[in-house]
């Protein structure tokens, strides 16, 4: 189950912090990006821990941020 993964928990906590910080600054948008190293890391982590080759989704619109 993805929701029980420690990576899922860390990602939720990180997004929550970013959303709260953006709101405190009066921002209504957050732009995040990935580096080439992130893609390589994701592929390797999937191969080592999930026995499959996957990459990140290219674009995600969050519906949780109401800044």
Instruction: Please give the share of residues in helix.
Output: 40-55%
Outline, from the CA principal axes? elongated
Task: Report the structural category.
Answer: mainly alpha
Q: Give the N-terminus to C-terminus distance in angstroms.
A: 30 Å
Give an account of the 3D structure.
The chain is built from two helices and no strands. The chain is an all-alpha fold. It is elongated, with a radius of gyration of 14 Å. The protein has one domain (2-50). It has helices spanning 6-24, 36-50.
List the SSEs and their pairings.
Blueprint: H1 6-24, H2 36-50
Concise structural overview:
The protein is built from two helices and no strands. With 67 residues, the chain is mostly helical.
Which key terms come to mind for this protein?
67 residues, mainly alpha, 51% helix, 0% strand
């Amino acid at each position: 189950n993805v929701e029980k993964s420690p990576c899922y928990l860390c990602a939720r906590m990180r997004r929550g912090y970013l959303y709260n910080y953006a709101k405190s600054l009066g921002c209504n948008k957050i732009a995040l990006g990935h580096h080439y190293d992130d893609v390589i890391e994701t592929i390797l982590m999937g191969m080592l821990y999930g026995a499959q080759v996957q990459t990140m989704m290219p674009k995600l619109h969050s519906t949780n941020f109401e800044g």
